[in-house]
Amino acid sequence: MEDADSDTLEDAKNAHRDRYSEAQMIAPDEVLMRASVVNQALNTVYGQVKRLERGAPGPGETMDAAAQAQHEVWDMLRTMRTAMRHDLGVSYED
User: Fold this and answer.
1) Separation of alpha carbons 9 and 69, rounded Å
2) Which residues 6+ apart lie within 8 Å of 69 measured at CB?
């Protein structure tokens, strides 16, 4: 991974950490439950990428596996967004 990519990843991780910390203080339980699932998945992918970057991947950790795990986060994000919209009263879909 190039330095610029690594810096971008670190910036994104730090921004996410800050927003997640803020959400923990104000989000309702249903939204926070969904956000926690997303947060755990993102931390897992981040760990995989950092181990790959250091050249010390865990069993089964490849760039393809990390990319697949990252792709799977999108479904979790959609579920979280639905919970957020429901909480705000702008969507009544379940």
Assistant:
1) 16
2) 41, 44, 45, 48
